[in-house]
Amino acid sequence: MNRIYLDHNASTPVDPRVAEVMRTLLETSFGNPSNPHWAAQPAKQALEAARAQVAALVGCAAGEIVFTSGGSEANNLALKGVFYARGKNPAHIITSAIEHPSILAPCDFLERQGVRITRLPVDGTGRVDPDDLRRAITSATILITLMHANNEVGTIQPIEACARIAREHGVPFHTDAAQSAAKISTSVDELGVDLLSIAGHKLYAPKGVGALYIRRGSRIEPLIHGAGHESGRRAGTESALLTAGLGAACEIGLDLAWTQRVRELRDHFLARLRDRFGDRVVLNGHPEYRLPNTLNVSFVGHRGADILAALDGIAASTGAACHSGRVEISSVLRAMGVTEAVGSGAVRFSLGRTTTQDEIDETVERISGVTSSGTGV
Ligand SMILES: Cc1ncc(COP(=O)(O)O)c(C=O)c1O
Predict the structure, then answer these.
(1) pLDDT class for 89, splitting at 50, 70, 90?
(2) What are the two backbone dihedrals, phi and then psi, of residue 108, each rounded to the nearest 5 degrees?
(3) How confident is the model at residue 323, as a pLDDT?
(4) What is the gyration radius of the CA atoms in the chain, in angstroms?
(5) Quick check: 321 pLDDT over 90?
(6) What is the distance between the alpha carbons of residues 68 and 246, in angstroms, rounded to a whole number?
(7) Distance from C-alpha of 256 to C-alpha of 163, rounded to nearest angstrom
(8) Which residues pair with 294 in a beta bridge?
(9) DSSP-derived 3-state class of residue 231
(10) End-to-end Cα distance, the chain
(11) Ligand 1 pocket: which of 9, 202, 332 to mutate (most atoms <8 Å of CB)?
(12) Closest ligand 1 atom number to CA of residue 73
């Protein structure tokens, strides 16, 4: 049986070109990049080259990139860093109801510190309304954080419009681009954002590394205090190995040509599912403003988890969790107003650079098989 990987939004394999860069550095970059002597040079050079590569992906200056351990840390640094740099209440942060837990949980934490949090609703496709944002801003608003693209359904937010509103009100704007970087353009100037998070393992770099773009002049208190690494914004000796992996992946990610093929493959996937299931397959997410690799569909009358369990060898994710025999749909689908009946059949397929049409066609055949086999799926 073929193993098919359709869970690239969960994590991507390391690109062989990234692995090659890292393999060399594993032996040569042992020096501490903060030292002035010869042994530090390979590490220091790799670190700074990587910073420039990450900066090029988002269109900023190298000095505006802070390396982190991943997307979660970048998001935490953005939210808590802005709050603690202000250091006073009353403070107000605006976010959306469908953010990743690495935004929602820091918001809950800050709420316990006395910060007022507004969680904007989304429409049935998962998009926020910029007018809702405009109405939510007050004189106490210290930060707006809205994800660029959603991890479950792939919906892309109107970041440019929202960031423009933030700027009109003089409020810093953060976007979580963990899912969008290297899939769609994430130019910080085109988006108009002040802070932007990326996560290595979503763009063919290894786990354990990410970055936060911090627009020059933005005030951020570090989460990790210590020596002056990362220009005093994140203490801890940097890993030239991991950051070079992220840098190489960002350089490769500048070329978005592959996404057109993947978009066509994804649309072919949905068309084939519609041929088989008709209106018993429902698209979750925006039909147009959606990541090119993401297909979240509900198989009405089925449980997504049961389908995945029966699709032995096919890796994908469900949009619902089973608790004590009861299916609970994800908070993202719930916020989009998806009913329990439709949401419990949700499956997220996320394609990658190496996904082939044969894999998609085989997946459609296997889904058709398990949903009509009388297995109770
Ligand atoms: C939208 C989004 N933000 C942040 C993260 C967290 O990134 P990391 O796993 O690198 O901490 C993820 C990972 O699932 C994500 O999908």
Answers:
(1) confident
(2) -60, -40
(3) 64
(4) 21
(5) no
(6) 11
(7) 24
(8) 350
(9) helix
(10) 20
(11) 202
(12) 11
Token couple for 333: 């689908």
Ligand 1 centroid vs 279 CA: distance in angstroms? 32
Residue 294 Cβ contacting ligand 1 at under 6 Å: no
- pTM above threshold 0.90: yes
Number of residues that make up the chain = 377
- 23 class by beta-carbon count within 10 Å (0-12 exposed, 13-18 middle, 19+ buried): exposed
**What is the Cα–Cα distance from 101 to 37, expressed in whole angstroms?**
42
**Which pLDDT score, from 0 to 100, does residue 372 have?**
81
Identify residue 43 by its one-letter amino acid code: A
Q: 323 — phi, psi (to 5°)?
A: -115, 120
The answer to whether residues 116 and 90 touch, using CB atoms and an 8 Å cutoff, is yes
Average pLDDT over residues 332-336: 97
Q: Where are the alpha helices (DSSP H) in 113-158?
A: 130-136
The atom number, within ligand 1, closest to the CA of 201 reads 10
Residue with tokens 């089925």: 302
Determine contact, residues 248/53, Cβ cutoff 8 Å.
yes
Beta carbons of 6 and 318 less than 8 angstroms apart: no
pLDDT at 8: 97
- Kindly report the number of other CB atoms within 10 A of residue 135's CB atom: 12
Which residues fall within 8 angstroms of residue 61, CB to CB, at 6 or more apart?
Answer: 55, 216
Give, for 54, the enclosing helix (H) or strand (E). helix 41-58
Regarding the beta carbon of 176 and ligand 1, being less than 6 Å apart is answered yes
Once rounded to an integer, what is the mean pLDDT over residues 20-32?
A: 95
Please confirm, yes or no, whether 322 is among the known catalytic residues. Answer: yes
Encode burial over 8-20: b for 16+ CB neighbours within 10 A, e otherwise. bbebbebbeebee
H/E element, 55? helix 41-58
Cα separation, 142 vs 155, whole angstroms: 26
Dihedral sign, CA of 312, 317, 320, 325? positive
Tokens of 149: 């693209």
Confidence of residue 322 (pLDDT cuts 50, 70, 90): low
